Input
Amino acid sequence: MKDLFGKAILDYQLGNYTEDIKTETSISEEDDLPLPYLFRGYDEMPAIEKRAMDLSKGRVLDVGCGAGSHSLYLQNEKHLDVLSIDISEGAVKASGMRGLKNVRLQNVMELEGEKFDTILLLMNGAGMCGRLKKISAFLLKLKTLLNEGGQVLMDSSDIVYMFDRDDDGGYWIPTDMDYYGEVDYYVRYKGEEEPPIDWMYIDYDTLANAAQANGFNSELILEGDHYDYLARLTTA
Output
């Protein structure tokens, strides 16, 4: 991986901001992801992220911390003990430069021997398991990292609206798709392109069913303006 996300985040942190990240999926056209948005404060966060910040408690694991904006708020404003992890070396470096006290280059699936009261998976954090067939292993891993009474706060979107409707009002989903929320995700930055990664948007009902099958209770905390939502998972 070229770590284009990390390169872009580090560029912004170092004052070398000249262009935004470009993203595209197998079912959507290219779009810009403005770098300043990754450095937003609490007041600039959407309602779903603000609610997640408000609900966070105890020792927190921020999975896929990116530029560290959520972790910095929890560390500096709520004075929580936060471990921030990401698989992007550039993001980890930039987050440390921004003042995160405990940030680590780490894949959550390989994290061992630590427990948390809150696990955060924001900016479609539920999608990082890539494919629906991997959701059970992903959720079971998160369970091993939770203290008794702990919670997982994750957001995602139901992207069924992106598909055409038939005359009966149903959605026309291609038959070669295992699950309509699975996409190939492309990132481009400054003339370079990453190989596509497996990514997933998971609707709440599918997440809730997977959660129940793997020993979690699920709660729909908040729905956003565009098919997005915040869910809380707790151990059953």
User: Anything to note?
Assistant: The chain has one domain: 4-235. The CA atoms of residues 148 and 189 lie 42 Å apart. The chain has a mean pLDDT of 94. DSSP finds six helices and twelve strands in the chain.
